[in-house]
Amino acid sequence: MPSKVFSAAIVGLDAKLVEVEVDVAQGLRSFTIVGLPDKAINESEERVDSAIKSSKLLSPHSRTFKVLVNLAPADVKKEGSLYDLPISLAFLIASKQTNFNPAGKIFLGELSLDGRLRPIKGALSFAIMAQKQGIKEIILPLQNAGEASLIKSVKIIGVESLAETLAYLENRKQIVPTPAPAGAGQTQETGLDISWIQGQEYAKRALEITAAGAHNLFFFGPPGGGKSLLAKALPSILPSLNFEEALEVTKIYSVAGLLPEGQTLMNYRPFRQPHHVSSDVALVGGGNPPRPGEITLAHRGVLFLDEFPEFHRDVLESLRQPIEDGFISISRAKHSFTFPSRFMLVAASNPCPCGYLNSPDHPCTCGPGAIAMYKRKLSGPLMDRMDLFLEVPAVKYDKLATTTTSNQSGVVKQRIEQAREIQAKRFTGEKILVNAEMQIPHIKKYCQYDAASENLLKKYVDSGKLSARGYHRVLKVARTIADLAGSANLQQNHISEALMYRTTV
Questions:
Q1: How far apart (Å, rounded) are the C-alpha atoms in residues 407 and 405?
Q2: What is the DSSP letter of 18?
Q3: What percent of the chain is modeled with pLDDT above 90?
Q4: Which of 86, 150, 283, 482 could be stapled to 487 by a disulfide with Cβ–Cβ 3.0 to 4.6 Å?
Q5: For residue 23, which of 51, 60, 62, 73 has the smallest C-alpha distance?
Q6: Is 226:395 a contact under the CB 8 Å cutoff?
Q7: Is the model's pLDDT at 402 over the cut of 80?
Q8: Pick from 255, 303, 340, 324: which is nearest to 11 by CA?
């Protein structure tokens, strides 16, 4: 009679329960795996055989065993080497070499040839799935136990080898479940304090507003003005992730195999900086099967696109829907995947290919056609989705040579955290966290303004300087400026400052 144990598969960013069935019969020796396995799973035959031998048991190749492995449901693509452990255990049950009750347990792990277990990807997703399915116990490699234990309602058993797994299942060895991590996780050392940047006070102010409300920011100016340096200083003033946000980010990085070694929880905001030769698939996700792209890896953090116009136009245009909706949907013939993409977009651009258009100190060497082609990549609909536009001029010697430091990252970060706390209280019970995520009903509710501000906004909208989307984005930025000032109501100076940042390239 076939044996059955449970494992799981990653589908997008989520996990799905998989039944691993093994039938062992006498006959011409064979080992067949069905159920849409990939190459890594088909190669598990040799790993399973060697690992079982190393554990002093009869392997599938020891006798004339005809082994059939079925991974169900059969219409879900299975990937990776995490099925080594459940296939081995199901084989040992079917061949009557062990006897334990696999009910209520999920088994995950790649086997080395000597029977030791290697770490896997997506441990947190598996634990979340187990919690939703009411499964009480997960047995997986010890290296992944800390990550999976973030879900406290599931019993996490970390094991180091196939032999140890059998000893635990047969009650020959007691293993203490891995406790949930006591701390909040490691913090990221940015190494770049905002006070190191001399001059550019308006740019620093724009960074503060961007970080406080999770807005999108566009820097433009000549080479060497500090656009890239300013963007790279942004992580030093960003508040840490709360636990729910940290779970979201950790889950993404775990599935992508990018979780830092030895770290169970990412409590700092990601900072992604893809090169301008990146494809649209690399940026927004895709492939076969679909994988998260840079916009998802930047979820709850920063996506910095340096040399913005140097990206291919279709790559930039693919950002429009994720910026607006906060997620990206990727459809395939049989499946549709949705990846989160709530990120702050920080873009930097020169005014022209040579970088010195309208510079008083350097003559521009670009022809009108080259300048027009350069700017044509930045379409109106894309630029309308930016919240703040800021010119970063060249810095003069007096500013560069000064030794005074003001507005250190720690001080700025405190102001930003206070503004985020105000937003958290405001949006209690809502499905949003920061001002940038407000939709039109939220804007009407939380962005009321006085008559003087109304006249100012009317002038900008009626003159064509503000689109409907730009109008709403100005109100979001003004709400953040008011939060930084500790003001419950929007004032004219908050609206005026927000409008000042709508001066486009």
A1: 7
A2: E
A3: 81
A4: 482
A5: 60
A6: yes
A7: no
A8: 255
Query: What is the distance between the alpha carbons of residues 476 and 106, in angstroms, rounded to a whole number?
Result: 46
Q: Is the per-residue pLDDT at 398 higher than 90?
A: no
CA distances for 393 relative to 87, 201, 210, 221, 399, angstroms: 62, 11, 19, 6, 12
- Which residues pair with residue 287 across a beta bridge? none
Main-chain dihedrals φ then ψ at residue 144, nearest 5 degrees: -100, -5
Give residue-wise pLDDT tens across range 16-38.
999 999 999 988 889 999 999 99
Within 10 angstroms of residue 84's Cβ, the number of other Cβ atoms is 28
pLDDT at 449: 94
Tokens of 104: 């209520």
For 395-421, b/e burial (b = at least 16 CB within 10 A) is eeeeeeeeeeeebebeebbebbbebbe
Distance CA 133, CA 293 (A): 28
Who contacts 367 (Cβ-Cβ below 8 Å, separation ≥6)? Answer: none
Distance CA 127, CA 157 (A): 12
What was the pLDDT predicted at 73? 95
The answer to whether 387 touches 324, Cβ cutoff 8 Å, is no
Sorted by where each begins, the domain ranges of the chain are: 3-169, 194-403
Beta carbons within 8 Å of 141's beta carbon, 6+ residues apart: 108, 109, 110, 117, 118, 119, 120, 158, 159, 160
Given a cut of 70, whether residue 403 has pLDDT beyond it is no
Measured CA to CA, the distance from residue 423 to residue 428 in angstroms comes to 8
Sign for the pseudo-dihedral over CA of 491, 493, 499, 501: negative
Q: Cα(289)–Cα(387) distance, rounded to whole angstroms? A: 34
DSSP H helices, 223-271, are 227-233, 243-255
At 125, which helix (H) or strand (E)?
A: helix 123-133
Domain formed by 194-403, architecture: 3-Layer(aba) Sandwich (3.40)
pTM as predicted? 0.92
Dmax (CA) of the chain = 89
Closest CA to 356 of 460, 457, 241, 225: 225
Angle at 366 (CA atoms; ends 360, 369), nearest 5 degrees: 130
Confidence class of residue 130 from pLDDT cuts 50, 70 and 90?
Answer: very high
What kind of fold does domain 3-169 have according to CATH?
A: Ribosomal Protein S5; domain 2 (3.30.230)
In terms of residues, how long is the chain?
Answer: 505
Over the stretch 79-89, which tens digit does the pLDDT of each residue have?
A: 999 999 999 99
- At 356-394, the pLDDT tens digits run 998 888 899 999 999 999 988 899 999 999 999 999 988
